[in-house]
Amino acid sequence: MAAQGAFALGKSSPDLFRRRVLWIALAVMAVFTLSYLSHQRHEDLQTANPLAVSPAHESEKVEEVGEGEDMEQMEQLETMEPEPTWTFVTGRDDMNYGLTDEQCDIAFPLLYQELDRARDHLVELNRTIKERDVHVDRKGSYDGRTHGEFQCMIHDGEVSQLLLSAFPFSYSNFTTTLTDLQQLYVIKEVHGEPDRSRGLAALANMYRAISSMGDARRLIPNVEFTFDIEDIAMEGEHNKERIRWTWARPKENPWLWPMPDFDGWSYPDDGVASYVQFREDVAELETNFTRGWYDKPQQLSWRGSFAQNGDLRRALVKAASGKSWSDVKPIDWHDRKDLMNMQDFCKFQYVAHTEGNSWSGRLRYLHICDSVPIIHKLNYNAHYYPLLIASGPNQNYVEVNRNFSDLVPKMEELLADPERARAIAAESTRVFRDRYLTPAAEACYWRRMFRTWRSVMDFEPKTYYIHKDGTRKRRGVSWERFSFRQEKSFEHGFFVEDKIKDEEPE
Ligand SMILES: *[C@@H]1O[C@H](CO)[C@@H](O)[C@H](O)[C@H]1NC(C)=O
Ligand SMILES: *[C@@H]1O[C@H](CO)[C@@H](O)[C@H](O)[C@H]1NC(C)=O
Ligand SMILES: *[C@@H]1O[C@H](CO)[C@@H](O)[C@H](O)[C@H]1NC(C)=O
Ligand SMILES: *[C@@H]1O[C@H](CO)[C@@H](O)[C@H](O)[C@H]1NC(C)=O
Fold first, then answer.
1. Ligand 3 centre distance from Cα of residue 292 (Å)
2. pTM, whole model, 2 decimals?
3. Which residue ranges of the chain lie beneath pLDDT 50?
4. If you write DSSP's letter for every residue of 421-440 in order, what string do you get?
5. Which of 107, 125, 175, 500 falls between 20 and 30 A from 438, CA-CA?
6. What separation in Å is there between the alpha carbon of 118 and the centre of ligand 1?
7. Which residues belong to any copy of the Glycosyl transferase CAP10 domain (predicted)?
8. Ligand 4 pocket member 377 (CB < 6 A)
């Protein structure tokens, strides 16, 4: 609020000196906030248990960090750090897209592991993100099908340019600016595989995460990035070190930055509707089981097509065939026989998950069920998969081999020990449905993604490009306009071609 007030004052005053003083005040506040946040982030990394979100654990963490560190500095940090007066309450906060950075840290301390990993990978190599890293693929840089790609920018327009000219030296060290001015732009779209609606869903999610920030105290940096909407984002690419935002990454590819997949907006099928509506539908369905999990049939549910990852999926169907605990069936999208609505998986005590072309977005839906997830060893990581725990007191799923050779003994073990199975389901709903997969958590992840990306970005995004004759043209199309674009519009009573072109000079 204070920052916003200062900004307005500075603008209305013609006195340049006074304006500069205000900018300095603003800059000092930005540094202070940044250093506070970076301390917070380092602490997140110290926590081993994803469930340790209580204030008691916070103080333990500080002691751990203190070993071998400058104790004086640690004491300072401790006294500077306010006691968390706020805690995340499911049912009150899970739909809040606009939690502050501090609230995001308190509520979801272990959400950002994939982002920290991606950043650390670059830092270890003394590598930064250059303009060429965010340029969409050039012809000849890949084989096979063209991937759908979106090159995007989040920018506060002229404000940072003004700051830059007022304080060229010191400002270049700051990576954040006022949020409530931030705009989302699409610089370039490459039409390719698969359907572009997935990209539009990601953009809508980002837009929501940005526009939910109600006041200037919350910070989102200027960033430029490219995301690839292909399931297998590195397929056909020649450059093994290609950096992209993707739905998921093979565990052995450290260059990709997992973003929340498009399912966080909506699964592209009317049977599921939007993610938020799906959560509501499941909540309603669960009320039918008056004794909760115990009232559900002691069976494992799965449906899927062999068109993707056929060998793996056939192994599941084979392992489960003829078992009284099995409701596992393949489907064929041509006749749609044996189809099951997504929410109906939740009517079983056990839900099986299989990867698809690469990762499968279905897991986040299964994680909304009060059921025990049975998951084969995964080759891909989506943004929240570091939170999966396969053993110990905080076990939240049951892991089986990729050939499902151990499915039968593991199912028999669970069926013989319902208390243990029930505890795994309860842990799954607590960690995923009620915390790390809430819409609130996802908005926090997006904003942290912008910030973590910016921390290794080595250029300032440009809002204009300059033609040879010196005239300048705005880069990109603002999301508000882009989301309405179509080949032809009928706005004025007759069809008009869309004249907006993404092309920019090389
Ligand atoms: C890191 O990269 C920068 C810029 O390329 C270079 O100037 C610097 O010497 C490098 N540092 C190390 C430790 O390699
Ligand atoms: C800004 O960064 C430069 C180079 O990294 C450094 O030498 C300088 O001290 C920094 N300035 C401030 C005000 O932190
Ligand atoms: C709950 O049970 C009632 C009665 O059997 C049924 O009509 C209704 O469709 C069920 N609701 C859901 C969401 O499954
Ligand atoms: C199934 O996978 C496990 C673990 O990778 C392996 O040890 C086992 O030999 C495999 N079984 C068959 C029948 O391939």
1. 14
2. 0.79
3. 1-14, 34, 37-69, 168-180, 216-218
4. HHHHHHHHIIIIIIIITSHH
5. 175
6. 19
7. 219-453
8. no
